[in-house]
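Archive entry. Fields below.
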Amino acid sequence: MVVTLRDVARAAGVSPATASRALSSPELVAPARREQVQRVARELGYRPNRAARELITGRTGNLCLVVPDLENPFFAAVAKGVQARARTLGYAVFVADAEEDPRLEPELVAHLGAQVDGAVLCSPRMSDEDLDRLAEDVPLVLVNRRHRALASVVIDNADGVRQAVTHLHALGHTRIAYVGGPADSWSDARRREGLAHVSHGLRRVEVVDLGPFAPVFAGGVAAGDLVAASGATAVLAHNDLVALGILSRLQARGLRVPQDVSVVGYDDIPAATLVSPALTTVTVPLARLGREAVDLLVAHAMSTRRGSAAERVVAAALAAHRDGAGGAPGVSASITGGPRGASYVDVDAARAVEPHTPHDGTHETDGARGTDGARRADGKAVGADGGADGRADAPAGAHGPRVGVVGAPASPDGTGEPAPQPVRLRVELVVRASTGPVPTRPTSEADR
Amino acid sequence: MVVTLRDVARAAGVSPATASRALSSPELVAPARREQVQRVARELGYRPNRAARELITGRTGNLCLVVPDLENPFFAAVAKGVQARARTLGYAVFVADAEEDPRLEPELVAHLGAQVDGAVLCSPRMSDEDLDRLAEDVPLVLVNRRHRALASVVIDNADGVRQAVTHLHALGHTRIAYVGGPADSWSDARRREGLAHVSHGLRRVEVVDLGPFAPVFAGGVAAGDLVAASGATAVLAHNDLVALGILSRLQARGLRVPQDVSVVGYDDIPAATLVSPALTTVTVPLARLGREAVDLLVAHAMSTRRGSAAERVVAAALAAHRDGAGGAPGVSASITGGPRGASYVDVDAARAVEPHTPHDGTHETDGARGTDGARRADGKAVGADGGADGRADAPAGAHGPRVGVVGAPASPDGTGEPAPQPVRLRVELVVRASTGPVPTRPTSEADR
DNA sequence: CTGAAAGCGCTAACAC
DNA sequence: GTGTTAGCGCTTTCAG
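PREDICTED_STRUCTURE:
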């Protein structure tokens, strides 16, 4: 009923081993036989059994993504990016919604982690300890959070607020309110730091911290009243959802935006342009966060995988690799080579001969990242203090085209390799209709 | 390194077979041994190898969901519902984004279908033929589309527009514009049908069809101008995104909503309340669409599965089942029993003794569906003309609490069982600020 | 109720 | 280059 590799082998007049090789490692088979086997396989409609393959190779060809809330446009966009990238690389992706529950996250990762080659955790709210624990079981890449030796892709939080505040300052605003996100939000902490730096640098600018709020529309609505009462002429919100809430509340109270109060968001979700006035906000390359995360995962995390046979081999290869051989890519290639190829029809047949160089920036619109970002362990970079806390990042005063960091995505899986530099993506302020010049006379609640 | 079932067996002093049973079919093992094995397994941190299990059982414990666009709030919400439900049943779910490309859909389903127990296709744009083809390979459940014998969950499209038009009519509107969705949208076709019925029933109501538009914000913006030119005092949009676009365009042109024009959307996505005026719209139980789809999948689609050994057994069981024995649930239970239980730690240990009754409405807020919706093949229902085209659905004139259909979710997998009735979910108009009484004098472009 | 044995479909040594 | 031989870890007959 279901056609098996044996069937193909028999029909092609070769041994199962040869059939297997012809499909999975074509370069090991004589051209004539190879093509014949491939043809027969096609004719018979052969579909390799993934479970059987996984059982022996230890690789699944799957990834997983865990987000706090799929309905949040921010995460939806990241998910889309992850999807797209994974698909072109031949990976399928499990998506899990943690329902904003920090306790659910580790559970989800543990469950899914058992059946994937790696996991992307987007804005995880779980503790550092949980992250450490999980990282032992499955290759992890963090998005929008940083943690010790784990690979991660983040945005330049500090630079975003810098741009926003600079913009507001140029419009004459001197009293700016900040409506923060959740107290335990990693990115919010970075933005606060950035805020402190900018306001230091700018004369006569005063930032009023209105405190932490839920990072959703309702949070913004609540914050709206505080904004009105603060006497600020401009407000910067933790994210667009919050900004939208503020906007809504302000307008409901009869305050005009931007005539009375200017509002700036963060993230640039689609809804930012659905409202009027359209929201001035900090554009974050949402989809790219996802894409980079996948690249990172495929680049290094996949190298080690608890997979019985494969595991031992990889370990041996890595050892040999470290012992001198500057870079015999062929070796690691045949080991780390995961699924690839856009066509799902015969992924195996399409398996490239070229070594595994998953991301060389080909698809990126700006050439920020080094083209050899995927190659790891080239001596020099080893042993640095990459495991530091990551406080060294934001020289927030500097500006100009901040490069999205290169760094060697090494393997933090306990193979003794150094911790990777996080991939940091640039953000950019996009000015729309919700910000304008400071009102000539101060606006306050008393105005109405 | 990794603890295997053999290890557990050895440590517990039993054979691998017994260990396996103790964990996967506890009822087959003597209480004493059973508990001992379970304890040992826990202590050793035993984690069953899913690949090995899948290889022999043919079941994966995974589902997949394919949507046209993850960033569309409609699909995000459905995805969330699918997620949640699948998780409580112990299933992990692959999510794929078809990027609004009908050609990509079958490819994704084919790829993922090979490694899941069933697939949920949300608003698939692919052809009927593609659906037929895929349905042969993997159990399918459709959301927001109907097709022959495939199980599906849809909303009462016709009733939604009926409510909307009735509302508008009550406000005095007599000239109502309809801004449709994509020409090949199944749901849009249903809404048009409903529209025709209602306007027949209502005196003096004239519906102006403004044609098909892309179901996104930009589509609505484009439609906005047509609305203004149509002379209609109210407009009903294919969905909220389009309604939002219309709203935006109308306001940009100086028309006031609802004073000059009333706007009604469909779906009630979160953004509907982010704008001002808040959108009057037809609330669709988005998350529930997803939940029901999963229930349907688990209820019947899982019964048959090409899985070597399991397949034959299931087939035999089904045959025996049909031959009289009204309901020997024990049999099918041990066969169809998929993963379940909320705890991921020891899903197996939690395997219920009770027969497989995945959804009995326990989690539903309204008891619309029958509690025995999961039980299939009880003679009577067999052989009906369930395979009809689905044109029989909308007696659009009727109203009142339309029940969300019960029907026996039979297996359309060619086992000779009848086609299932689609699960139809009720929708409800929610009146917000974007609709109001008809203007005393007609509004047209000339007004400004 | 329990154990021994036989694979699920595939890949990876190891010889030839 | 190719075939032969072993299993990967688990479930499931089939005897006892």
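CURATOR_NOTE: Residues 4-6, 16-17, 20-21, 24-25, 48-49, 51-57, 309, 313 of chain A lie near DNA strand C (CB under 10 Å from a C1').
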